[in-house]
Hints:
Layout: E1 4-7, E2 15-23, E3 26-31, E4 47-51, E5 53-58, H1 72-86, H2 89-105, E6 108-113, H3 118-128, E7 131-134, H4 149-159, E8 166-168, H5 180-193, E9 197-201, H6 205-215, H7 220-228, E10 234-238, H8 244-253, E11 256-259, H9 261-266, H10 274-279, E12 283-286, H11 299-314, H12 322-336, E13 354-358, H13 375-381, E14 388-393, E15 396-400, E16 403-404, H14 409-426, H15 430-434
Parallel strand pairs: 1-4, 5-6, 6-7, 7-8, 9-10, 10-11, 11-12
Antiparallel strand pairs: 1-2, 2-3, 4-13, 13-14, 14-15, 15-16
Helix pairs in contact: 2-3, 2-14, 11-12, 12-13
The structure holds zinc ion.
Zinc ion (ZN) is lined by residues 57, 59, 200, 237, 289.
Amino acid sequence: MRGGTVVTVDAGDRILEADVAVRDGRIVAIGARLDMAATRVLDARDAVVIPGLVNAHMHETLDRGVFEDLPFTTWLYDFALPKDRAYEPRHMRAAALLNQAEMIAGGTTSAIDIFRHPHVAAEVAQRSGMRMTFSPQVVDDPVGPGETLATNIAFVDEWHGRSPLIRAWFGPHGLCSTLPATYERMRELASAAGVGIHTHLAESRDEVTAIAERTGGLTPTQYLDRLVGLGPDVVAAHCVELTDADVQQLAGSGTGVAHNPTSNAKLGNGVARIVDLLAAGAVVGLGTDSNMTNNNLDMFEEMRMAALVQKQATRDPAVLPSASVLRMATIGSATVLGLVHEVGSIELGKRADLAIVDLRRAHTHPLIRSGRGNVVEHLVWSCSAADVRHTVVDGRVLMEDRQLLTIDLDEALDAADHEAEHLLRSAGVFTKRFGGTDA
Ligand SMILES: [Zn+2]
């Protein structure tokens, strides 16, 4: 990467005018006008080189823009559950192609997916070159719309340790939809295999009420701790409804908190206590949630949303400054996912997961280059996924000059349209939603 501004997101938050050299997938040199020969040079002039963005909670779905503006129970029982029941591997293949194409195009180099048919999504990831973690979404109640403990175990058996960029985890959906015994069994298996557990936690007030009734007054955080034992190998998404004690418990245990501000807003679930969690020392990363509740996987937009909602909710414009937000989307998410020893910052020896973001845009000027400059501010407040010029994962170029190199974008788009309609028709919800006749 020649001639860029490098935002390292390292311990010193250094910003350098420098080249970055990569060999065998690792960052081997960072410095001005490096005197090194390269077999391939990516142009980073008028651009900023950042650690690849890490999406700490998402579902690879085909559900974008198909069930908008419905009352919650109509949405859930008449559309969402029948649709999730109808997912077949063919739909999941199209979903993974579409979601991974979008993430690579937006500078996201790594993500954790919690959804269906993970073996199909993992095969797509082997082709796309993304660094992915798959946690099959296990739903016990109601039966049918998710993966099961048995399919999750089979997936971990088949995929754990099989491919250097792909990890297989456990994915209990949530405390209201996954049985306590399933959580407990997953904890035994996850500890034995050395893999993580990814779940939704304290997402809504309804969840708080239901768990309190079921447990005689426990909070969702206390109940999850009782079932699996909170710790660094647990990733908890949303974490909106937390007591002061819950904040301390999540922070003290090193549990990974995945913040999903857009999804929380769209579902009317309120604002997570991110300022309090960070003050308590919690490990916090950023995720988009699915294309149903966001509706894109743009981590730049998610950074801006994270900053906006904290400032609005606390009525304090000084909270969650730009550098903290960028950390959340990079090294924060990498820590949440247990990948911080490999990625999340631009440092010698780390794997080369990088995004090169164009700054030669009207919306990234004025550009100040003296002192600390204002590059980080532009990344958080002005940039979008469409500004990413190149994306690199593990030293492999997945997008160059906005051209995807590992996924055929036309194939992904056509498959998404075709398979989404097939999915919705086989779920029996297509005509109900869009009119016309049943094909
Ligand atoms: Zn989710």
